Predict the 3D structure of the following.
Amino acid sequence: MAIGLFLYSFLMERIVIQETDPAVLEVLDISLTEAGFEVHATDHCAPDFLDIIAAKQPHLVVLDFKLSGKEAIEVCNQIKQRFPHLPIIAVSCNYNINQDYERHGFDDYIRKPFDLDLLVKILRKHIPKV
């Protein structure tokens, strides 16, 4: 039984979510866990954020573009330098995110408020088959 749970956990699609709004973070955490993802959720991008990514070894990162734009871009660049093949999805209420995300190193985006089914589709599109 323990081996089965270990294998199930190992095969789950792991994601790290950073979202500054606690209510949105909670909805994402609960909804994506129910959708079958193993979720590590955080409301900050502290200096240890890259260490969290290294420890959790996610298949994908969801990053709040609201970090103030420039900071989110810097964090995205830091992630891409250390983990070049790790997909990063920007979540933003920025109307121009569809024009900006790729230029700043993000692999995709979803605009807030978002449809959870669409978010799951976008995540699965970018997660390598495990």
Notes: The chain has one domain: 11-125.
